[in-house]
Specification:
alpha/beta, two-stranded parallel ribbon, 6 strands, 8 helices, 188 residues, 4-stranded mixed β-sheet, single chain
């Protein structure tokens, strides 16, 4: 009898998994609602003298037709991120858009492979910035948060879109101004 109780939820799960448009009709926090509608509302509410609009997007928004990004975009995540980026860029507000790789380190709040494996950098990997959606890899949530905060105080990041991944040896102190200065050369 207990197995029969779980059967409708299994059918519902299969519908959601196999038909992304069905899942969007059922979701209360779909990528479209979170990124597109949410960013539209934030841009509309932002004061005209806002110092910076910092948005965390995702590596792969320009490569969503290629694996592994095509899998991530099955539910429209990258489509929504790209639309949100366009809204911000066209808003007239000063902005910085950060595209991290696959997020690792805690908090582990979702039901994905990262949570299962408790993937972490253990604070031992350096940072690499790139432009043009060319980087792939993992990014510590801690480093994404730091990049958001540090970018506000650095004028080089105004009007920039860049990728951020963890790779290589980590220096004892992250030189954010030095990292951000590479954006001037990467954009050329």
């Amino acid at each position: 009898m207990n197995q029969a109780k779980g059967f409708p939820s299994m059918i519902e799960w299969l519908k959601i998994y196999l038909n992304p448009s069905y899942s969007r009709t059922k979701a209360k926090n779909s990528p479209e609602q979170v990124d597109v509608i949410g960013v539209t509302n934030l841009v509309a509410a932002a004061p005209k003298d806002l110092k910076r609009f910092v948005f965390v997007s995702s590596c792969g928004v320009l490569r969503k037709d290629k694996p592994p990004y095509s899998i991530l975009n099955s539910f429209g995540v990258l489509d929504a991120k790209q639309k949100a980026e366009e809204i911000i860029i066209n808003s007239g507000l000063p902005y910085t858009i950060i595209r991290p790789g696959r997020l690792i380190d805690g908090p582990f709040t979702s039901y994905d492979l990262n949570t299962l494996l408790k993937a972490t950098t253990a604070g031992k990997l350096g940072l690499v910035l790139g432009t043009g959606d060319t980087l792939s890899g993992q990014t510590s949530r801690i480093d994404v948060a730091s990049a958001c905060v540090e970018s506000i105080a650095n004028s080089v990041t105004v009007g920039k879109v860049f990728e951020l991944i963890n790779r290589g040896a980590r220096p004892s102190v992250i030189d954010w101004p030095g990292l951000f200065s590479t954006l001037e050369y990467l954009s050329i």
